[in-house]
Amino acid sequence: QVQVMESGGGLVQAGGSLRLSCAASGRSTFGSNSMGWYRQPPGKERELVAFISSGGETRYSDSVRGRFAISREKGKNTVYLQMNGLKPEDTAVYYCKLVFSSLYDVWGQGTQVTVSS
Hints:
Elements: E1 3-7, E2 10-13, E3 18-25, E4 34-40, E5 47-52, E6 58-60, E7 68-73, E8 78-83, E9 92-99, E10 105-107, E11 111-116
Parallel strand pairs: 2-11
Antiparallel strand pairs: 1-3, 3-8, 4-5, 4-9, 5-6, 7-8, 9-10, 9-11
C-alpha cells in the first residue's frame, strides 16, 4: 500500500525557517511521480504551495515564491519543502500529495506549522 508521511512541522517565530519532509513508501521508487505540497490555514480551503514534476520542474504559489523551495531526493523517495522568511499567514496544516494520475493521488496526514508574530 502506497503511503506518504510528512514531518518537520512545528512552532517558529516570524522570519524563521523550517524544512518539511515528505516520505513516500510502498514501492521501490516514485521517480515517475509528481509530488506537491499543499496547506490549509485555519478556516480556509486547502491550497497549492509548491509542486515538483517527475522531471524536476517546479512551480510555486505567488504567496511563497522566493521564500519556499521544493526539492526531491529520488533515491530516498522523499520531497522537501524548505521554508524561509516565515510569516504568521503561513500558519497552516501542510500536506504532501503523491500524484499517480489525474484520477488518483495519495495524501499524507499533514503536519502543523505555526508561525508566531
